[in-house]
Amino acid sequence: MTGEHILVIDNQKSLCRMLEAVLQDNGYTVAAFTNPVEALESFHPDRFSMVITDVKMPEMDGLEVLAAIKKVDEEIPVIMITGHATVEMSIHALRSGAFDLLTKPFEPEELMQRVRNGLRQTALILENRQLRREIAEQEKFGEVIGKSPALLNVLDTARKIARRDIPVTIMGESGTGKELVARAIHEHSLRKGRPFVAINCGALPDTLLESELFGYVKGAFTGADQDKKGLLEMADGGTLLLDEIGNLPMNVQKALLRFLQEKEFYRVGETHPTSVDVRILASTNADLQQEMQEGHFREDLFFRLAVVQIRIPPLRERRTDIPLLAAHFLEEMNIRFGTAVRGFTPEVCEVLINYGWPGNVRELKNVVEACLAIEQGSLVGMDGLARLMDISRYDQEKGLDTKVQKYSEALESFEHNYFTNLLRHCGDNVEISARKADINVATLYRKIKKYSLR
Ligand SMILES: Nc1ncnc2c1ncn2[C@@H]1O[C@H](COP(=O)(O)OP(=O)(O)OP(=O)(O)O)[C@@H](O)[C@H]1O
Ligand SMILES: [Mg+2]
After folding, report:
1. Which of 24, 49, 74, 411 pairs as cysteine with 4 (C-beta 3.0–4.6 A)?
2. Does residue 201 line the site of ligand 1, with CB under 6 A?
3. Distance, CA 174 to ligand 2 centroid (Å)?
4. Atom of ligand 1 nearest to the CA of 321
5. Is 141 contained in some domain?
6. Contact call for residues 52 and 6 (beta carbons, < 8 A)
7. Does ligand 1 have an atom closer than 6 angstroms to the CB of 285?
């Protein structure tokens, strides 16, 4: 027995029996009705995992049955059986939310194939719903999403230092969410409601960077035909994020150090200082220690800026964040594109979870976005993904993973993956999971506890 209960409706007694027998042989329990009105009376969303209904019935049309069921349970898969499906009728049924159509006569195996697909989709939808719930329940820190211990650790530190008015340096590879965390720190600080200004120190030539940051007065250089405020002044009362701080030229480093010490600076071309009240946050994906050793970065500035350092780990070191992030981006893109893609197939999930993500969260976001732009169905499948990602490269990466571990460690990592996947596939249902894995429920509970899986 699979634990799945299926509602079968067909006014033709013999076919109804046949359906019942085939489903039961495959381990499902069945409630079979020849009268759709009676069937609907006994329909209850928590009771059934699927509905199979005939289309042509004297008491009530199959499409009406479909509509009635969808009214009660929008997600349940409904398979329609027809004698001869016209294209028009098929389209109508699918538009009204039917999962699939089966034309008589059909082989039992054909039926079972569709049933399995339908149930798999329900499991995925439930999983997606669960992920959305997790996201909604997360204690919010800005827009930052994730539940891996590594990320929660980062957020914990960030939350603590947010209200202390000191500089913070956020380190991490490109696309790990440094700017997002910086914004969240600002939002959780006493400067909330005041400006948050970000500047990419690597994107501007040296002289321009200086005048962008500190502003200038009329006549300071050719083209300076009026006074202009710099970003420091624009951020007055708030926070200034210096992005890619490793690229700060020496003259700006010196001026910035002065600002951190004295709270004042000189506009370009001006001889008296200006003071403002701005908290400086910095971010970098470079190794500042090394920059310092090589003489590209001032030590005194480093120690001022990096009073507190936060390091955001790359996505590949916190893979448990991937499903949550992917579900979040899916939702976001659905809203943006007006699509209704409901999730990812298990194969796609596996690739997403195991891929190396050199571009980190930004790359994941781009991939989800691109998947949605080309996806026609209700789930993102491998076809779509393969068009966007070099999956062979991903396979190679998997093959290269030949680091020798202790047996006990390898076993633990296998078990962790295995049971995570198992539960996911079974919609977090322990009984079903245990049955599928052919282990007893008590063992499964022990593993869930050991690896904190729920
Ligand atoms: N934990 C997260 N939750 C939700 N979105 C995230 C998360 N981390 C990153 N993102 C998203 O990924 C994208 C890149 O993030 P962000 O710009 O903060 O990265 P970065 O570390 O500053 O990158 P770079 O070094 O290239 O400037 C953004 O669209 C951001 O919203
Ligand atoms: Mg950035």
Report:
1. 49
2. no
3. 7
4. 1
5. no
6. yes
7. yes
Span 245-260, pLDDT tens digits = 998 999 999 999 999 9
What is the mean predicted confidence (pLDDT) over 114-136?
83
What pTM does this model have? 0.70
Q: Give the model's pLDDT for residue 330.
A: 94
For strands 50-54 and 274-275, give the pairing: unpaired
Q: What residues pack around ion ligand 2 (CB closer than 5 A)?
A: 179, 243
**Widest Cα–Cα separation across the chain:** 98
Helices (H), 309-428: 321-337, 346-354, 360-374, 382-388, 391-399, 407-425
- Decide whether any atom of ligand 1 lies within 6 Å of the 172 Cβ: yes
Q: Tell me what the mean pLDDT of segment 393-397 comes to.
A: 52
- 328 & 350 share domain: yes
The DSSP string of 227-268 is -B--HHHHTTTSEEEEETGGG--HHHHHHHHHHHHHSEE--B
Protein residue closest via CA to atom 16 of ligand 1? 177
With the most atoms of ligand 1 within 8 angstroms of its CB, the residue from 141, 155, 180 to mutate is: 180
Q: Tell me if 267 is assigned to some domain.
A: yes
pLDDT tens figures, 321-369 = 999 999 999 999 998 888 888 889 888 998 999 999 999 999 999 999 9
Q: Tokens 């169905």 — which residue?
A: 377
Residue with tokens 């990320």: 151
Residues 6+ apart with CB under 8 A from 366: 359
**DSSP code of 49?**
S
* Predicted confidence (pLDDT) per residue in 160-214, tens digit: 999 999 999 999 999 999 999 999 999 999 999 999 999 999 888 888 899 999 9
Q: What angle do CA 309, 275, 200 make, to 5 degrees?
A: 45
Last residue of a domain, one of 293, 313, 333: 313
Sign of CA dihedral 145, 147, 148, 152: positive
